[in-house]
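Lecture notes, continued. The same structure-token format from the folding unit now serves as the input rather than the output. Read the line below as a description of shape only.
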């Protein structure tokens, strides 16, 4: 039996990694298998983030870039993508917790911060001494953030005053630094601000009743006259185009995460089909089950192939917004299809955490929507394809 088929690497994308990169993946896989996976179901059910694992995450040495801190080893775009896939393959909540800090929060400082701001914040974030969050989405503004952001920033001398609300903010209940995007009332442009935990007027309340990514602490943030010094305004964030530069990279990372979610569901369904017996033989021998297995593996493989090419473009500095949008759109759509088929293989057992598919089935709904819905990413892709914008 081809081990690549068993592990969901049917076209052997791991062979594209260098020996050193493969060693990193092996080390991270071991950590995920031994430290993250054993308690994933229980954390998901309780709605807990594994903050106790932060010291071990730090020791993995996979946070940040050499630009953030000289101690960080370089990572190719392919390695970064494969690591995102591997994390989500085990626990989408853990992968999102890591990605919000490492991608959205650190990425905002890296892309939009001044050199002084990068030196001030990023080394501490590399070491997880300060955990980051990213505050863009609002209670009444999701897809319309480019033109409809309601959180405001008003300058008073050397200080900015922020007023508004944010919703769905991952890591928001415990983050030390929250990158808040607000509209400058003077020029109507979106700007970025770093708000520290405990700032007067800033409150964060965990959202309750979630059915997806329960291991992520999503917060409802309220900013009531929060005062931020000009020194903490991201100096390179002066319009939503700058915000979009951060999202371009992280949107591509979601494509890898969606691939990992589909992969985790496929592997759990395959393992179940091999051991589950009906009518005196394993259900993996039934034609209808084999059809579902093949469809799932086909989806995973197609997403991997697209994500690998995306990583190559990113490495060459040629990844465009529309290409990242297409990757997110395609991979999350195929993911949603795949986790549904995985649940189908398990029948009623597919909704029980103990059989390994239910978390992926539920968590896929969050990945499908965040970092831009399928519809919004389709419009970004089609705008590039047609030269005509459908946005109002």
């Amino acid at each position: 039996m081809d081990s690549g088929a068993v592990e969901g690497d049917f076209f052997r994308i791991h062979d594209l990694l260098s020996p050193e990169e493969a060693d990193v993946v092996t080390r991270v896989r071991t950590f995920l298998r031994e430290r993250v996976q054993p308690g994933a179901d229980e954390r998901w059910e309780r709605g807990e983030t594994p903050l106790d694992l932060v010291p071990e995450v730090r020791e993995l040495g996979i946070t940040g870039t050499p630009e953030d801190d000289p101690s960080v080893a370089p990572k190719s775009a392919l390695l970064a993508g494969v690591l995102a896939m591997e994390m989500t393959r085990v626990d989408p909540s853990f992968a999102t917790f890591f990605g919000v800090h490492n991608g959205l929060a650190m990425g905002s400082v890296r892309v939009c911060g001044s050199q002084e701001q990068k030196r001030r914040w990023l080394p501490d974030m590399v070491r997880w001494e300060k955990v980051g969050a990213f505050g863009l989405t609002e209670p009444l503004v999701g897809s319309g953030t480019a033109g409809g952001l309601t959180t405001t920033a008003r300058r008073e001398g050397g200080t900015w005053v922020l007023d508004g609300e944010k919703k769905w903010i991952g890591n928001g209940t415990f983050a030390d630094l929250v990158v808040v995007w607000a509209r400058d009332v003077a020029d109507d442009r979106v700007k970025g601000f770093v708000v520290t935990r405990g700032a007067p007027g800033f409150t964060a309340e965990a959202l309750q009743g979630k059915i997806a990514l329960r291991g992520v602490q999503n917060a409802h943030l309220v900013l009531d006259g929060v005062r931020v010094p000009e020194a903490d305004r991201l100096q390179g964030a002066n319009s939503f185009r700058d915000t979009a530069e951060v999202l371009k990279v992280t949107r591509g990372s979601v494509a890898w995460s969606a691939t990992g979610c589909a992969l985790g569901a496929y592997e759990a369904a395959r393992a179940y089909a091999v051991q589950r017996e009906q009518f005196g033989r394993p259900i993996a021998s039934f034609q209808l089950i084999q059809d579902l297995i093949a469809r799932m593996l086909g989806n995973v493989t197609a997403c991997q192939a697209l994500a690998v090419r995306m990583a190559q473009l990113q490495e060459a500095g040629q990844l465009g917004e529309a290409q990242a949008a297409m990757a997110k759109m395609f991979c999350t759509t195929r993911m949603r299809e795949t986790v549904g088929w995985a649940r189908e293989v398990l029948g009623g057992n597919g909704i029980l955490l103990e059989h390994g598919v239910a978390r992926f089935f539920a968590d896929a709904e969050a990945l499908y929507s965040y970092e831009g819905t399928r519809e919004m990413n389709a419009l970004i892709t089609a705008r590039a394809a047609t030269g005509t914008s459908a946005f109002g």
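Point for the exam: DSSP finds 13 helices and nine strands in the chain.
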